Amino acid sequence: FSIGQFSVIFVFQMKHSVLVLTAVTLTLILRCHAQIDCNSGPTNKRNIRAYSDKCLANGFPTKIAGCVTIGSNTLSGVRAKTCRKLHQRLNACALNCLKAVDGGFSAFGEWSECSADCGEGQQTRERSCNNPAPANGGADCVGSLTAVQNCNSGSCSVDGGFSAFGEWSECSADCGEGQQTRERSCNNPAPANDGADCEGSLTEAQNCNSGPCPEVKNIASKGMAKQMVVLIVREV
């Protein structure tokens, strides 16, 4: 729309060595167009259809690709203003009268590697909106570009681990070198889902009470020995 106009008078000429001022009027009309938001308002298809039916069919002149003016221009007033706005919108949003093409999905690509080797990971695959790509105001593809699925959902294998050793057993001898043992288990954790067993012994042994035993002295008297012989003879 016009927001103002002004005139400028400024021509100087030399005529017969006399400076003569000649008036020339220059009218400038400043036009300001509101910024057009291509993502709001009627859909692109509706804009193109309205432009074709209401404007081109009534002779509205156009240079937009694929648009054809029919007959002489019979538009005026509000109808002409509406067509000018539609024309501006189509230009600003790079639309044309060529046949609209709605977007279509390509086939999905390969699945990505699983995010985990076990215990339920995820993998994705993608597709594009290029079969065909939307064109000339056609609709975008409806749906997700990415598919997701679970993978490797089996339980993870667990390798066995030893517990701490228990207490030492009592020594097998009071003197003269005995032995004692202590045990541990393969339960920290226990092997599971084809995990490996613990490597190593479950039992540990060590020597104990290794000092010499005290000597036993014979303190029996000769009299006692004779008594024992007598008793043996009697029994025979």
Q: Average pLDDT, to the nearest integer?
A: 78
Q: Regions with pLDDT < 50 over 5+ consecutive residues? A: 1-12, 15-34, 229-236
From the N-terminal CA to the C-terminal CA, the straight-line distance is 150 Å
Tally of helical segments: 3
Query: Quick one: how many beta strands?
Result: 8
Residues in β-strands, percent: 15-25%
SSE blueprint and pairings:
Blueprint: E1 2-8, E2 11-15, E3 18-22, E4 26-31, H1 44-55, H2 77-92, E5 121-126, E6 146-151, E7 178-183, E8 203-208, H3 222-235
Antiparallel strand pairs: 1-4, 2-3, 5-6, 7-8
What's a concise summary of this model?
The chain has 236 residues and is an alpha+beta fold. The chain has three helices and eight strands.
Notes on the structure:
It is a single chain. The protein is α+β, with helices and mostly antiparallel strands. It contains three helices and eight strands. A two-stranded antiparallel ribbon has the order 1-4. The chain has a two-stranded antiparallel sheet with strand order 2-3. Helix 1 (44-55) runs antiparallel to helix 2 (77-92). It is rod-shaped, with a radius of gyration of 53 Å.
